[in-house]
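Minutes, project huddle
Topic: does the predicted pose make sense with S-adenosylmethionine bound?
PN asked that the exact inputs be recorded in the minutes so nobody has to dig through chat later. Recorded below.
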Amino acid sequence: MEIPSGVYDVLTDPRTVIADDRVQIPFELDRARYEQVNKILKEIGGRWDGRKTVRAHVFPFPVQEFMRACLATREFPTRYEQGWYPTPTRVVDEMLAHAGIREGMSVLEPSAGTGSIVGPAVECGGVVDCVEIDERRARVLREQGTARRVVHADFLDLDPLDCPNGYRRVLMNPPFSAAVQHVKHAMGFLHDDGTLIAVLPESGMWHSDRATVEFRELIALAEGTFAPLPDESFAPSGTSVRTVLLVVDAEAGGPLPTHGWHQAQPRQLDLFALA
Ligand SMILES: C[S@@+](CC[C@H](N)C(=O)[O-])C[C@H]1O[C@@H](n2cnc3c(N)ncnc32)[C@H](O)[C@@H]1O
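Predicted holo structure (tokens), as shared on screen:
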């Protein structure tokens, strides 16, 4: 949801302190403006603590990094929106430790948000292409200027064969509500020597619907691993959802439907051409 301009002005005022677990506004606001600010800070998870020593909105998570992302897009996630939970720094570090990105390595981030993974992957030497469905977040990614390419699109609509080569690394924290679908689709963009690293909700470990069960079987065949992330890993983004980290390596002729696998499939078009 968009941050109203009056609230944006208050939150970006140089006198406003956004640090650790609190937002402190040490200047007078008129009643209507205060109520607007209060409503949004509460929606994000803060609660007003009026004690003399505090006098701030206090959050159950370190709010600085998260507010920076919100202010960059001038929006904040409500629980009804698309599941925008920026990946906290510690989780990104863990992903990068598995990724072993080397200078010039091609990397795909297919649900890139405002670049919590993109920026650090570029700093490691990755050449990163990213996709984001939300126009405002895609604009922020472009303005950051770190990714080689920013595609504003529904990732699930993109055809792996429209990209000439697979990526050496796919790093992703997809929307939790459709995580399995996103990861399976992302495999089509993975090079046969590539590695895919994804944050998934822990529910993917026990959901018994057919798609999730088949997904777990596929990962087992490919000898991928699901490692639980510490509880509260996503607290900095305002959710207590439990998460796991999937790491899976592709190999030529292996079980994953990689970019190479897609290329090897007979194309429908060609079959018609022969008829
Ligand atoms: C859990 S957030 C993670 C954001 C980013 N990966 C990060 O780590 O900060 C999921 C992101 O996926 C985006 N998204 C949701 N559905 C998408 C789709 N079908 N195609 C591309 N991006 C999508 C959302 O807008 C949101 O920014």
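Observations noted during the meeting:
- Residues 89-263 form a domain with the Rossmann fold fold (CATH 3.40.50.150).
- The chain has a mean pLDDT of 91.
No decisions taken; revisit at the next huddle.
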